[in-house]
Structure to design on (402 residues):
């Protein structure tokens, strides 16, 4: 037994008609959509949606978008006018059956035409692909032949260069060998002359021999060294207690300035242990345009109290300014999770969360998800002109007219 979908939403202009049908779990591959001039049907078991239109629409210009459990119809009216109702009133069963049969017949005819068109296109593509492949093979063969010829010429040139280099090196070795032979001959002649000269006169060391006393051997011993026990990086003689305290304070401030995630809570000042104080500090930094510092302050506040939705909501605004879009989605989702149950007191916060998350989705080109968040925001405040205008822009983008 199919479940008839009745909680759809529709609106119109003089030329266009918009229908939004919520089907939980609907995807494009598994949903059967039928659309003719006077009949629209969506079959997604166990859900069934059908409507017999009050007037005719232009099927060729109409657009259907399916995704994330929502089906959006954009139908163009054949004659511009404002309809009193979406569907025909008091439609007989015979008329309904006739419209259904006409829709099925048109779909079958369209499917047949599409199949023939696809077959013709496939044959043309195969022929074109064959011609392209033949052309590519011919060009590849020419390229390979050219590369072979270039490699052959390159190998011949390298061989000639190698032979020339070998000849030059052989000539250099021959010259060096000749020079070495001549130098060796000169050294032998000089040595022979020196030997003859030294054999005829007494040695210089024998004439000027000096008796030098040998120094005594050093006595053995040991040296004792004592070190001051220290835990601080520097030795005690190089540092003093006030200087060490100042150094430790600067290290804590540096850790606080660089990253609040690794900051030891013992390094916090008294006011920094208050999440409300950190929230106000983050607001001031955000107003001054220092978004990174604002994120650090809110990170520390969330570490102290992770149940305050305003902290996640404010941090999502900082991430949106920094274009950390995935983190924006995470923070707004966490804020909406904490803003339960939905009551009038938290309506403004929930509105901001939906708008910021919808903006992040649109920046990531996830327009269907963004439109869902903007429509959720409009349910909270239907009179918000800005949100309504932005939702309309997103809807036009989804329909391909933006």
């Amino acid at each position: 037994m199919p479940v008839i979908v009745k909680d759809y939403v529709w609106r119109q202009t003089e030329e266009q008609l918009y229908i939004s049908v919520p089907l939980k779990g609907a995807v494009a591959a598994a949903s059967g959509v039928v659309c003719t001039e006077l009949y629209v049907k969506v079959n997604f078991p166990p859900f069934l949606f059908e409507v017999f239109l009050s007037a005719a629409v232009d099927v060729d210009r109409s657009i259907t978008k399916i995704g994330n459990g929502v089906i959006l119809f954009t139908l163009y009216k054949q004659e511009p006018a404002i309809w009193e109702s979406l569907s025909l009133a008091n439609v007989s069963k015979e008329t309904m059956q006739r419209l259904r049969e006409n829709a099925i017949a048109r779909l079958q005819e369209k499917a047949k035409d599409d199949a023939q068109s696809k077959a013709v296109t496939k044959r043309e593509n195969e022929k074109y692909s064959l011609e392209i492949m033949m052309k590519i093979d011919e060009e590849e063969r020419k390229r390979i032949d050219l590369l072979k010829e270039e490699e052959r010429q390159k190998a011949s040139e390298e061989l000639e260069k190698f032979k020339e280099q070998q000849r030059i090196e052989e000539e250099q070795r021959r010259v060096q060998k000749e020079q070495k032979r001549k130098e060796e001959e000169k050294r032998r002649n000089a040595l022979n002359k020196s030997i003859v000269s030294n054999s005829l006169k007494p040695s210089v060391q024998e004439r000027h021999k000096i008796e030098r006393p040998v120094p005594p051997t050093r006595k053995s011993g040991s040296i004792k060294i004592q070190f001051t026990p220290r835990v601080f990086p520097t030795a005690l003689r190089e540092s003093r207690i006030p200087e060490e305290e100042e150094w430790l304070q600067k290290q804590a401030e540096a850790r606080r300035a660089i990253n609040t995630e690794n900051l030891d809570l013992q390094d916090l000042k008294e006011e920094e242990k208050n999440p409300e104080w950190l929230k106000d500090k983050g607001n001031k930094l955000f107003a001054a345009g220092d978004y990174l510092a604002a994120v650090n302050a809110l990170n520390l506040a969330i570490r102290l109290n992770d149940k305050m939705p305003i902290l996640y909501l404010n941090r999502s605004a900082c991430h949106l300014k920094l274009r950390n879009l995935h983190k924006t989605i995470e923070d707004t989702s966490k804020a909406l999770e904490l803003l339960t149950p939905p009551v009038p007191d938290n309506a403004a916060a929930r509105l901001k969360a939906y708008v910021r998350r919808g903006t992040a989705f649109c920046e990531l080109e996830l327009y269907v998800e963004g439109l869902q968040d903007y429509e959720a925001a409009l349910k909270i405040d239907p009179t918000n002109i800005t949100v309504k205008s932005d939702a309309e822009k997103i809807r036009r983008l989804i329909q391909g007219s933006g």
Notes: The first helix runs from residue 93 to 198. The first strand starts at residue 3 and ends at 4. The chain has a mean pLDDT of 82.
